[in-house]
Specification:
Blueprint: E1 5-10, H1 14-26, E2 31-36, H2 39-48, E3 53-56, H3 65-75, E4 81-85, H4 90-99, E5 103-106, H5 113-149, E6 154-159, E7 164-167, H6 169-175, H7 179-184, H8 198-209, E8 215-223, E9 229-240, E10 246-255, H9 257-304, H10 313-343, E11 351-354, H11 355-365, H12 367-373, E12 376-380, E13 386-389, H13 391-407, E14 416-424, E15 427-434, H14 441-444, H15 466-476, E16 480-486, E17 490-498
Parallel strand pairs: 1-2, 1-3, 3-4, 4-5, 12-14
Antiparallel strand pairs: 6-7, 6-10, 8-9, 9-10, 11-13, 14-15, 15-17, 16-17
């Protein structure tokens, strides 16, 4: 059933009120009408009757149309108001419309009243729908901003030149800039990006701006206001105008620094697991080769032993050889134990160690060898004076590399050793460079860090275990070893350790 249109008529002349009602009854409008003729009844009806529209004469004994309109706006702001009067000046009618009346009808032309009511109600309902839509949009925006402000995601709205239009409080917290600071300095979003990721960031932004993609996701290193580097994940969407031109880019940004650290740790654990598997294969080789050799000799010698004539010269010689091979076997077992212990050292205590302190200590231990070689050693630790690491491992790596530099020097060239540190992304690089005999990497690169691998003559003492230990210790600390070498030009060993 169609809802009745509730009309409040303010009229003190009964015959005019009756005429007005007769016109409305003849129309197609489904109405419910109340007529009042004084201020008190008018105010009461506004509250109790709750009219959908008001038709008001101009001049009544207790109030006029101007006062009625003001009362309506004060009590019921959203009720259409039509002035219905015998005669008013055009100027007065215009003023009433300016004050808020929706239309005016002369009593001499009441036939226009139904259409005027329909038009005013339609316009009013349209306005109500617009206002409702605006409120709902404002409420939705408020709810959205509430969720954005209370989520780990920051929200930034850019124009098509990647200048900030607005940013959420969470985005301000992530980068340390307020929206005002960002806009005042005319910063673009690219000023946040780490220089090594800038080219990729420009590519991601350009494909949004030129419309080749509607949205994309990217991970970049960024800088905060304080200069701290953080990892951020960006979820970007492009908004176009009616002509298809991108006008706005909306970004949700999240600080994923801790996630990246976790990913790096997971990757390190996987790499360590792969190394341990590789070590198991190498361990199997050592057991089958390095242990079998002395054991086979011991077994062979024992079979030659003459138990009936114990004190013969042959038996004495056999016993000496058996003892020698037993010592060799014991040394092999000790070497294997050293390598396995290094590989299984993930929980060793770390501490802050100064590179100069450990280099000076190793130089003191190798004092005689360094003096005999007449080596000139230069150091530069200005880039990184120390590191948080396992002290015994750092000492061992420095000892093995420095002793090798001294041991494998050239006879025709004064030995020069350069030791320094540098910063390489997330690592501190400790390097030892010499001008010694060098290594033929084209031939030995894949064997360089193997156990019991030697690349120089037997006249130089050594077991071929030092470089294996250096590599094992560096990798157990989450680092790596790199080498550059050329025959008769020297070698440079670089140890990269996590900073």
């Amino acid at each position: 059933m169609e809802k009745k249109l509730k009309i409040l008529v303010l009229e003190d002349m009964p015959e005019d009120a009756e005429l007005l009602q007769r016109v409305l009854r003849k129309s197609d409008l489904n109405t419910e009408i109340i007529v009042v003729d004084n201020k008190t009844s008018f105010i009461k009806s506004l509250s109790e009757f709750s009219p959908d529209i008001i038709l008001s004469d101009h001049s009544l004994p207790t109030l006029n149309s101007v006062e009625a309109l003001k009362i309506t706006e004060e009590i019921k702001r959203d009720i259409p108001f039509i002035l219905v009067t015998a005669s008013v000046s055009e100027e007065f009618a215009v003023n009433m419309l300016k004050e808020g009346a929706d239309d005016y009808i002369l009593k001499s032309n009441l036939t226009r009243l139904p259409s005027s009511i329909e038009h005013v109600i339609k316009r009013y309902n349209g306005h109500k729908e617009q206002e409702k839509a605006k409120r709902e949009l404002a409420d939705a925006h408020e709810r959205l901003m509430f969720h954005l402000e209370n989520s780990p995601l920051g929200y930034i709205e850019w124009d098509n030149t990647i200048h900030v239009k607005s940013m959420s409080k969470r985005a301000e917290d992530i980068f340390g800039y307020t929206q005002a600071e960002f806009m005042e300095n005319h910063r673009t979003g690219f000023t946040l990006i780490h220089e090594d990721d800038l080219a990729e960031s420009h590519r991601v932004g350009q494909e949004l701006i030129d419309g080749s993609v509607k949205s994309n996701i990217a991970q970049h290193r960024c800088y905060t206001k304080e200069g701290k580097m953080i990892w951020c994940e960006w979820q970007n969407s492009a908004i176009k105008d009616n002509d298809g031109n991108v006008t706005t880019i909306m970004s949700l940004v999240q600080d994923i620094t801790e996630r990246k650290k976790s990913e790096r740790e997971t990757l390190r654990l996987v790499e360590n697991l792969q190394l341990k598997n590789k070590d198991l294969r190498q361990f199997s080789y050592m057991v089958s080769h390095n242990l079998r050799t002395p054991i086979a000799k011991i077994l062979g010698l024992s079979q030659l032993f003459d138990s009936k004539s114990i004190n013969t010269e042959l038996n004495k010689k056999l016993m000496d050889n058996i003892v020698s091979e037993t010592i060799n076997l014991d040394n092999v077992v000790k070497d294997i134990n050293t390598v396995v212990t290094v590989r299984d050292s993930g929980n060793l205590q770390k501490e802050h160690v100064l590179f100069k302190t450990d280099v000076d200590l190793v130089a003191l231990v190798l004092e005689n060898e360094i003096a005999q070689s007449k080596a000139k050693i230069t150091t530069d630790f200005s880039a990184a004076e120390g590191i948080n690491t396992v002290k015994s491992y750092l000492y061992s790596m420095i000892y093995n590399l420095l002793s090798n530099a001294v041991k494998y020097r050239r006879a025709d060239e004064p030995l020069a050793i350069d030791i320094k540190t540098s910063l390489e992304k997330d690592f501190i690089c400790f390097s030892i460079k010499d001008n010694g005999s060098g290594i033929e990497l084209d031939k030995y690169a894949d064997k360089l860090f193997g156990l019991y691998k030697r690349f120089h003559g037997e006249e130089i003492p050594g077991k071929g275990i030092g470089l294996n230990l250096v590599k094992a210790q560096a990798e157990s600390l989450g680092g790596r070893v790199e080498v550059e070498s050329k025959i008769n030009s020297g070698s440079t060993f670089k140890i990269f350790l996590p900073n």
